[in-house]
Write a structure and sequence with these properties.
Blueprint (H helix, E strand, L loop, with lengths): L1 H6 L1 E4 L5 E4 H8 L8 E2 H11 L4 H6 L3 E7 L2 E8 L2 H14 L8 E4 L5 H9 L4 E4 L5 H10 L2 E7 L2 E6 L4 E2 L6
Parallel strand pairs: 3-10, 6-7, 7-8
Antiparallel strand pairs: 1-2, 4-5, 4-6, 8-9
Amino acid sequence: DQEAKLSGRTVTTGCGQGTVFAHTLDMLYDTRLPTVTTSQSIILDLLREIGGHNELYKKAGAVHGCGLCKGPEVLVFVEDVGRHNAADAISGMMWVEQIDGADKLFYTTGRLTSEIVMKTALMGIPILLSRSGITQMGLELAQHLGMIMIARARAGSFLVYNSADRVELDISVE
């Protein structure tokens, strides 16, 4: 029943303009991510490490990068013109190699939109980190899922938008 399937359509803020259908969101709302913690020192160490992985961006500019990380270690880094393509490449690799996301962190250079939150949640990854900003719909979805959402992450600082109580502040900032 095509009309019924198309009736639950939500227009999103994805690249250009995206569409999400209600059955995709309904399935996601049944998802619960593992409750994990991280620390300020792990995030800052990862941000230092991730700087060495933007090779295509350094040569050409105008590309996004996404990384699958475990603690401060970058396991996989993919660059593409679209952050969604880079995220999908990592998701596919995780599926093929049967990599569990429960103890991982997902990094992206792009905004934390609802689509990126969805992709990260479907990979089973409970921590999402970006050097860019967030959207309201992305934040609301992360709150529902219990995802740690960190944005505006640069070499020495970051903002925790969701689940700040699970990010240990273990470095004194002077």
